[in-house]
Write a structure and sequence with these properties.
Layout (H helix, E strand, L loop, with lengths): L7 E14 L2 E7 L14 E5 L5 E5 L10 E6 L7 H8 L5 E8 L9 E7 L3 H13 L3 E8 L8 H5 L6 E5 H4 L4 H5 L6 E6 L2 H10 L8 E4 L15 E5 L4 E5 L5 H7 L17 E6 L2 E2 L7 H6 L2 E3 L4 E2 L3 E4 L2
Parallel strand pairs: 7-8, 7-10, 8-9, 10-11, 12-18
Antiparallel strand pairs: 1-2, 1-6, 2-5, 3-4, 3-6, 12-13, 14-16, 14-18, 15-17
Bound molecules: FE2/S2 (inorganic) cluster.
């Protein structure tokens, strides 16, 4: 994983705002002057700067071939940090919003066969993946769960395929997705993509433990839980490009210390889920505490997310 940082800052207009399902608002964003929007691929997300100091990430869930419109779906999360409530209450058709992106840490890797598992609003990155897999002639199946049909967005667009390749699991009708049946037998050459709430992600991770390495791709909207840091003391971070060496105390993130030193670095979520602060590692062992890297990517030890990850040794050298 290496983000390319070729994302752009745009001021877009809310061309339409519709109800996607119970508690889900769908926004279509366009350039006010009609300019073409940057290209993106399935799995990409953008930051919406909500104008009240909050920045939130949303997966693009429209058609990548439509360069005039970006579509995002926002679930109202009563226990959230206020971003979704703001979108639901304050963002109206015709408003302008500042958008940064697109960024993709969940790309669709070419494969002959896919199993897609989506829970609730986790359907958003999966929708364009399903379309791309289908267009590429790959075999695929989608298992889509939600509390009830009313709460499940984009059901109409999936209706045509329902029965053979799409299985809907409204929990109030049929219970949870039967993961042992779906993923119980590892299949060589099949890739599994999953997005949804943490319990679903963990259950899918468990089911896929016996699958070939690299089969499972997940995207998290909320950060994973981590225990104590590997290295409890202060550690040094040498910034190879700016020629600075900084001390990171136990109660501060590398990102905070780097920002305080006046070194420009992009960040957004500050919780290890969005990927904006990805930084190449030149020397030293990293204590990875992000929700993005796969175990293999973590073991490669050549990149880190400095908003949450720390040193597992007294000194790191970063390309900053
Ligand atoms: S700022 Fe989002 S991963 Fe670090």
């Amino acid at each position: 994983m290496h983000s390319t940082h070729d994302e752009v800052d745009l001021r877009l207009q809310v061309a339409s705002r519709t109800d996607g399902a119970e508690g889900v608002v769908v926004l279509e964003l366009r350039d006010p002057g009609g300019a073409e929007l940057p290209a993106w691929g399935p799995g990409a997300h953008v930051d919406l700067n909500l104008g009240n100091g909050m920045t939130r990430q949303y997966s693009l869930c429209g058609d990548p071939a439509d360069r005039s419109t970006w579509r995002v779906a926002v679930l109202r999360e009563p226990d959230g940090r206020g971003g979704s409530a703001y979108v639901h209450e304050a963002v109206r058709e015709g408003d302008t919003v500042d958008v940064r992106g697109p960024r993709n840490h969940f790309p669709l890797v070419p494969a002959p066969r896919y199993v897609f598992v989506a829970g609730g609003i986790g359907i958003t990155p999966i929708l364009p993946m399903v379309a791309a897999a289908d267009a590429a002639g790959a075999a695929w199946e989608l298992h889509y769960g939600g509390r009830s049909r009313r709460s499940m967005a984009f059901l109409e667009s999936l209706e045509e395929a329902t029965g053979t390749t799409v299985t809907l699991h409204p929990q109030d009708e049929v219970g949870l997705i039967d993961l042992p049946a779906v993923l119980g037998t590892p299949q060589e050459g099949t890739l599994v993509y999953c997005c949804g709430p943490e319990p679903l992600l963990q259950a899918v991770e468990q089911q896929c433990a016996a699958w070939p390495e690299g089969s499972l791709h997940v995207e998290r909207f909320s950060p994973k839980e981590f225990g104590e840091p590997v290295f409890h003391d202060s550690f040094e971070v040498e910034l190879a490009t700016s020629g600075l060496t900084l001390t990171v105390p136990p109660d501060r993130s590398i990102l905070e210390v780097v920002e305080d030193a006046g070194v420009p670095v992009l960040s957004s979520c500050t919780e290890g889920t969005c990927g904006t602060c990805e930084t190449p590692v030149l020397e030293g062992e990293v204590d990875h505490r992000d929700s993005l890297l796969t175990p293999a990517e973590q073991a490669a030890n050549d990149t880190m997310f400095i908003c949450v990850s720390r040193a597992a040794c007294p000194r790191l050298v970063l390309e900053l």
